[in-house]
Design brief:
Blueprint lengths: L1 H24 L3 E6 L4 H16 L3 E6 L6 H12 L6 E5 H9 L7 H7 L1 H4 L2 H7 E2 L2 E2 L1 E3 L3 E2 L2 E5 H7 L7 H13 L3 E3 L5 H16 L1 H8 L4 H4 L2 H14 L11 H10 L2 E5 L3 H8 L8 E5 L7 E4 L1 E5 L7 H11 L2 H11 L15 H15 L3 E3 L9 H15 L6 H15 L1
Parallel strand pairs: 1-2, 1-3, 9-10, 12-14
Antiparallel strand pairs: 3-13, 4-5, 6-13, 7-12, 8-10, 8-11
Helix pairs in contact: 2-15, 2-17, 10-11, 10-13, 10-19, 13-20, 19-20
Bound molecules: beta-D-galactopyranose (GAL).
The site of beta-D-galactopyranose has 13 residues, from loops.
Length: 420
């Protein structure tokens, strides 16, 4: 008996030692490329860093500033070309599919099965996180772009009410102008202008038109009078920005609204992350309305963590990151700070503020009624090359290189065709 116990003890020790060696070889660090550098974004990322550190993983940050991620995606391309994959990278929809097609993504299907992701993550997101039957990315959140962010005190001062139509919105902007406040806070960068244009198109043409033009790339819709009218409406909106808007970062535009220097910003709900970081609350300090004419529709994007095919000794860290990201508690804690809503359907809205609760309810309703559409500007309408062609045409129109709506429509059709 005694001898048996001793043998067992020795065996246990040996297993421990071998296990210890294997663990020592594992990299206990997560290297993450992302473009979350604003105050609200950094605060949200802190939630993830905290969760991972509780699990024993350290964080190697690879931040590439630039809202919308254009600069980050250029940096990622260079890293991947050099065979230097991060554990994961922030990515938007079609970019995930591009890398998956290139064969550089890992496979988290086993973890997905164990964790039941296929039941918890909405099908619209799985279209981008699962490639060829394999989980290659995990969604962190669902953002949507068709929002107005309004300073409440300014709204009260000018006696404004919620705009229900595009014309109401123009009338509201006129009121702000008459009161000497900058009506529209915008940063003149292509991705910001195109993100606003997504909403204008959905408002001008209605949800079905948006889908046909910006998700199906239907040529007749792209060159229709409705698209021309959308460019006219964009031109109208641009008359309400301040003279210094060119090149301004999106979060500085949000800060103008937070401070009351401007009435409204049309932006994805990452803008709410800035209000939250500034300790502002909905209905007291700011108002969140759907862009007029788009109520009932949600034009979404989702930040995905694309999971690269990393060496074996980094796989445990990657699984830890993926598991933490899709845990229910993280999905609530992170998205409360980020301004987005959970990428799982089973997370209670208890901890979310009024705008977050509305975002969660809107997403469910839009999904149920077939009014959930991918944002063209935000990588969920078409492949990156096509989305870039779109952003390029919009910005040339806004900055006067394309002079008329007629010409804009012609250039849009051509640019999309060339990029296909
Ligand atoms: C979006 C991204 C958001 C937010 C925003 C501004 O593309 O989905 O999470 O970071 O850019 O940087």
């Amino acid at each position: 008996m005694r001898k048996f116990m001793t043998m067992t003890a020795i065996a246990a020790l040996m297993v421990g030692a071998v296990g210890g060696l294997a663990r020592a070889a594992d990299v206990k660090e997560v290297q993450m490329l992302h473009w979350w550098t604003s105050g609200g974004e950094a605060a949200a990322l802190q939630v993830l860093k905290g969760d991972l550190s509780k699990d024993g993983y350290s964080w190697k940050d690879v931040p590439v500033a630039g809202g919308g991620g254009d600069a980050a995606m250029t940096a990622l391309k260079a890293m991947v070309a050099a065979g230097n994959y991060p554990t994961a990278s922030q990515m938007l929809g079609y970019t995930v599919l591009d890398y998956a097609q290139a064969g550089v993504m890992g496979d988290l299907t086993e973890t997905a099965k164990k964790e039941g992701w296929d039941k918890a993550v909405p099908a619209a997101l799985q279209k981008f996180s699962v490639y060829d039957g394999k989980w290659v990315a995990v969604p962190v959140n669902v953002h949507s772009v068709n929002w107005l962010w309004i300073n409440k005190a300014v709204m009260d001062k000018i006696g404004g009410t919620q705009p229900k139509t595009f014309d109401d919105l123009i009338a509201l902007l006129d009121k702000a102008k008459a009161a000497g406040v900058t009506p529209l806070a915008l940063g003149g960068q292509s991705w910001q202008e195109a993100t606003m244009f997504d909403s204008i198109v959905a408002s001008t043409g209605g949800p079905d038109f948006y889908k046909k033009a910006f998700n199906d790339l239907d040529e007749a819709s792209l060159k229709s009078d409705t698209m021309k009218k959308s460019f006219d409406n964009l031109a109208k909106m641009i008359t309400y920005v301040d003279p210094n808007y060119s090149g301004r970062d999106w979060n500085l535009a949000t800060a103008m609204v937070i401070k009351g220097d401007a009435l409204v910003q049309v932006m994805g709900d990452w803008a709410k992350g800035e209000f939250v970081a500034a300790k502002k609350t909905p209905n007291n300090d700011f108002l969140c309305y759907r862009f007029p004419g788009t109520e009932g529709s949600v034009i979404y994007n989702s930040d995905m963590f694309g999971m690269f095919n990393v060496p074996d000794n980094q796989k445990a860290a990657q699984i830890a990151l993926a598991t933490a990201t899709l845990s229910k508690s993280f999905q609530s804690a992170f998205n409360v700070v980020k301004g987005s809503v959970p990428a799982r359907t089973d997370v209670p809205d208890t901890d979310f503020d009024a705008c977050g609760k509305k975002g969660i309810a809107d997403l469910k309703a839009a999904n149920d009624s077939g009014k959930l559409f991918g944002s063209f500007a935000q990588g969920y309408g078409a492949a990156p090359a096509i989305a870039n062609a779109y952003k390029d045409v919009v910005t040339k129109f806004v900055h006067g290189q394309i002079k008329t709506s007629d010409q804009a429509v012609t250039e849009l059709v051509k640019a999309i065709d060339d990029a296909r």
